[in-house]
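It is worth pausing here to work through a concrete case rather than discussing structure prediction in the abstract. The textbook approach is simple: state the sequence, then state the predicted structure, then interpret. We follow exactly that order.
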Amino acid sequence: MINAFCHHLQKIKVCFTTFAEKSMPANPYSSEKLYGLNHLRAVAILLVLMYHYRAFKHPGWIDTVGKFGWTGVDLFFVLSGFLISGQLFKEIERSKSISLKTFFIKRFFRIIPPYLFTLFLYFSFPFFREREALSSFWKFITFTQNYGLDVINRGAFSHAWSLCIEEQFYLVLPLLLLVGIQTKMYRYTILFTFLLILFSLTIRYITWNISVIPVMETDDFWKVWYMKLYYPTHTRLDGLAVGVMISFLMQYSLKFQKMVHSNGNTLFIAGVVLLGVSFWVCNDQASQGASVFGFTCVALSYGIILMSAVSGSSFLSKSKSYITAQLAGLSYAVYLSHKGIIHIVQEALDYFNVETSGGISLCVCLLTCIAGGLFFRFVIERPSAKFKYSILNKRNESR
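Step two, the predicted structure:
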């Protein structure tokens, strides 16, 4: 098996050796023309909402429906790895370099203003907090909150952990790609992403044996499990690496592009089947199998489904939906604010003696989360986007 894999890597190396000299033809199925990615974003945010809603008063069926909602974050990781690296790969193909200033300006005005506003709400208005205690402010500002996060005792805005990982990814990826270009190692991107997945899997195995097993029968189990296995960046690289790997292949391998665009619906079925197997592996989240191999299985499953979403032959890419387009556009703002909003809504419903564990409360909470996302869009995100484009336009004019 190892020899076969090495032989396959050698074939990949040969395919990509001359990519710098050969310009790939434009992809006729460019993801910007597809609707599949919007569907996946919408699914991701709904999964997260159902999973986190279990922490509040809820109908009994939410426990079943939302059990695997934590994988919504993994789907977001796969999407981010694919989309962000895809932008950089296209820029490299076009200009043989990366404009770090342009990249970071775009990321800053997309991510930071809504994030800072959410921090303002959490630190200025205690009633917005779904839990009493927050992590230190400096950890949020430096995007290091995912390290040493005590979700049991400092659980307010704990879901910012995934934003920390993504920000660290945005910071490191373009720098690594630039180093790869300068050192002629860029062609080995597939190998590096595979090694990242293997690295995370290995670290989880070591962490399980060193940090988790000793507390298996204690009250600190979940605190340690989340802190050491679930939240750290180095244990959660699978999804981002899978996204980058698919993006690189879509950019530079005609055979891979052809395979994806010719088998869209087949890939969807394969991805869903593998996702079902992944859910079976992760059924007991506290098990060694789920803790060590589960994240990798989920990332690969969503990676295959993403391939279907960008395939020109897939029903996902051909099906336009206003609802999923809007949910996708609101997903970041809803992710930031949903816990605080659900907490406030249920407190208000309690005040008016309205049952908060029923379906009516659920609908009101979800609709209010969407309303909160719309507030973010019009008050924060759109003005930030206008300011971003004005800066970028000035930079282009000055060249």
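Step three, interpretation. The chain is about 70% helix and 0% strand. The chain has one domain: 30-390.
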